[in-house]
Write a structure and sequence with these properties.
Layout (H helix, E strand, L loop, with lengths): L1 H16 L4 H12 L6 H12 L15 H14 L5 H8 L3 H10 L2 E4 L2 E4 L4 H8 L6 E2 L4 H4 L1 H10 L3 E2 L10 H14 L7 H13 L3 H9 L1 H10 L7
Parallel strand pairs: 3-4
Antiparallel strand pairs: 1-2
Helix pairs in contact: 1-2, 1-3, 2-3, 3-4, 5-6
Length: about 240
């Protein structure tokens, strides 16, 4: 039985290196070995471990839960999605919220505007937050915004891009302005379907005029100045 487990994990590692995700890899497994081999969550946990750089497919000997393995898996999930919640991490890794939060705190991370960022910024990050100059096109370093396709399009358009300092949701209008307004709009509402969610989102965006978005952007200089005044520290 143990050899079968390791065999399945070797297969997962093979598909991980082929660029597949956990669900796709599990589909390959179940097509051959049947539905009972590994759950989706187990595959996701192993993929999180691989993303952390740990490719050991053997079970580590333990008297309790391996704390370091938990930290590696949590770090991989946060690196992949800075907006992931402690509840989502707990469900993926079968950990309690308090355990997840304790590990995140131990890794020096804190949540700013629902984004996981370092609790204490390095001197380099502090400088990068106060050295921004000039605004033409602004984005918040989300992966779709920094992808090769996006960067090629910006070059084609010959647009200058404002270099957004890392770990700075307090300097992204989408975070400190738009999403806060959206959160207030959705507060207390319940949804019964994806279509219901889409309808409410369309209603929210349709209710906002050009002035609404201009106000969020025009707050940037004021927030930059606050960062300068506080030597790069967070202003949340």
């Amino acid at each position: 039985m143990e050899s079968n487990k390791q065999h399945f994990r070797h297969i997962l590692l093979f598909y991980f290196r082929k660029g597949k995700n956990a669900v796709q890899a599990r589909k390959k497994l179940t097509d051959v070995y049947g539905e009972g081999v590994l759950t989706v969550r187990q595959c996701q946990n192993w993929f999180a471990k691989f993303r952390s750089g740990n490719f050991d497919v053997e079970d580590a000997p333990r008297s309790g839960r391996p704390v370091e393995a938990d930290k590696d898996a949590i770090k991989a999930l946060v690196d992949a999605n800075r907006r992931i919640t402690t509840r989502e991490i707990g469900e993926r890794l079968n950990l309690s919220n308090s355990t997840v939060y304790g590990h995140l705190k131990g890794m020096g991370l804190t949540s700013k505007l629902d984004v996981w960022v370092p609790h204490v910024l390095t001197e380099r990050n502090l400088c990068r937050r106060v050295d921004a100059k000039g605004v033409v096109f602004h984005q918040d370093n989300a992966r779709p915004h920094t992808s090769l396709v996006t960067r090629q399009k910006l070059l084609q358009l010959e647009w200058d891009v404002l270099q957004h300092p890392p770990y700075s949701p307090d300097l992204a209008p989408s975070d400190y302005y738009l999403f806060r307004s959206l959160q207030n709009f959705l507060d207390g509402k319940t949804f019964t379907s994806n279509e219901d969610v889409k309808n409410h989102l369309n209603q929210f965006f349709a209710s906002k005029d050009q002035n609404f978005y201009e106000r969020g952007i025009m707050l940037l200089p004021e927030r930059w100045q606050k960062v300068l005044d506080q030597n790069g520290q967070y202003i949340i």
